[in-house]
Amino acid sequence: MKALIFYIVIVLPLLGGCKAQAGFDSFTNEFVKTYQSLHIADLQLSYVDNLQQLPNAAGIEKQMEFFNHCRAAIAKYKRQELTPSQQTDYDLIVYESKLNLEKLALCKKWLAVKPAAIPSTGLYTIPLGKEWYAWFLKRWVADEVTPDEIYAFGMKEVESVKKHIEDIRLITGMGEDSFYTYLNNASFFVTDAKVIQHAFESVRDTVLHHLPGLFTTTNIPRVEIKQGANQALAQTPGYYNGNTFYYNLFDKPYNKRQFDWLFIHEAIPGHHYQFSITGKLKLSKVQQLFYYLGYAEGWGAYAEYLGKDLGVYKTPYDELGKWEWDIVRSVRVPLDVGINYYGWTDEQALAFWKKNIRGQDDIAMREINRIKRWPAQVVTYKYGAAKILQWRDELQQKEGSRFDIKAFHDKILNHGTLPFFMVEKNVMG
């Protein structure tokens, strides 16, 4: 009986041959209604929160029935005969059904082994921890990735970023030790909020002036710049929220090398610009159900590579600021796999950090503990940026002088947040 309504509303209309295509919107409307009625928990940063929100045995069966029926029902439609918007809905439903069924199969196994209280000591330390990590990696990043592949990707990125830093050191003409000593020189740090405010406003003006060279849409809401007051976010140099970029000046001097890359990532053409574009799109009800953080953070990290074209990174040290944070992001990728999948100890993780990052030991344990609490999340930045750079390089080689960077950016941004395989379809054709 519990499947009867689904079959009447969704499956039976599919039996009408050519008329079935006209019923696709009814199918998607019912998908949205039923999905919402199941109260499927949104993805949380904390693995403890995610595991605490898993459905009980009855909920698992109910969700499995829904997604299995969805897969059977949608297969009766001919994707190529749908409109572009309907094709997006089609792909999302197939993708989400697959990921959810994988999760639910794991949930069944979890019911037999889950502890009374979920330890917060790290995903690797709990029953089925490695299997949960592999699934979280798919949920955060992409369904085709594996932990081993992500580890190899991360190691490659570490070496690439280290080379960029070394190239800048060579430009300065300094020896290695003197170079890293000089980076702590007082001239790089400021404690006056007015100076910091003015610096970010100057970056904003410069970026906006150069924006038309890279982007079609330049009429976006003004991004405000304010000093942050949220102590809970003090560990980050800045963040974006509600048309405002906040810089954090609390008990430590502010590093000037963070001005350019941070504004680009959080504001323009990063998150503020991205959200401004998305806010103008007419997204389907299906697309409004889902949000893909890998896409969002990947875009923010990619935007940092546009600094020189946006008129910033005027000195080698300005550009170095981008690579100083990028080496942290890069090292976090193999660290994430090492800690959550390979079972690295704190000592092993710290040794890996110190081997690959100089001058940032003060934040090492903070980042290691973050990786333990939020498995897979840190991978999104590097993976997403790398995918966008890969597509750009491939199109530049293919199209040569016909390559249009504005059109490339439009194809990425003008469809809302999507899984990477769908973004790639829009970009590569």
Structure, explained:
With 429 residues, the chain is mainly alpha-helical. It is 61% helix and 4% strand. It has helices spanning 4-11, 19-22, 24-37, 47-52, 57-74, 84-113, 129-140, 147-172, 176-182, 193-210, 259-266, 271-278, 285-289, 293-303, 316-342, 346-356, 364-373, 379-399, 405-413, 420-428, and strands at residues 189-190, 224-227, 238-241, 244-247, 254-255. A 3-stranded mixed β-sheet has the order 2-4-3, with helices on one face. Strands 1-5 form a two-stranded antiparallel ribbon. Helix 6 (84-113) packs antiparallel against helix 7 (129-140). The radius of gyration is 23 Å and the shape is globular. The two termini are 44 Å apart. The model is unreliable at 1-18 (pLDDT under 50).
Q: What would a concise description of this structure say?
A:
With 429 residues, this protein is mostly helical.
Question: How does the SSE layout of this entry go?
Answer:
Blueprint: H1 4-11, H2 19-22, H3 24-37, H4 47-52, H5 57-74, H6 84-113, H7 129-140, H8 147-172, H9 176-182, E1 189-190, H10 193-210, E2 224-227, E3 238-241, E4 244-247, E5 254-255, H11 259-266, H12 271-278, H13 285-289, H14 293-303, H15 316-342, H16 346-356, H17 364-373, H18 379-399, H19 405-413, H20 420-428
Parallel strand pairs: 2-4
Antiparallel strand pairs: 1-5, 3-4
Largest sheet: 3 strands, mixed
Give the radius of gyration.
Answer: 23 Å
- The coarse overall form would be globular
Helix/strand structural class: mainly alpha
Query: What is the terminal separation in angstroms?
Result: 44 Å
Ranges where pLDDT stays below 50 over 5 or more residues in a row are 1-18
- Strand segment count: 5
* H and E order: HHHHHHHHHEHEEEEHHHHHHHHHH
| Fraction of helical residues | 55-70%
Look at the structure and give the mean pLDDT: 94
| Beta fraction | under 5%
Report the total helices.
Answer: 20
Give the strand line-up of the largest sheet: 2-4-3
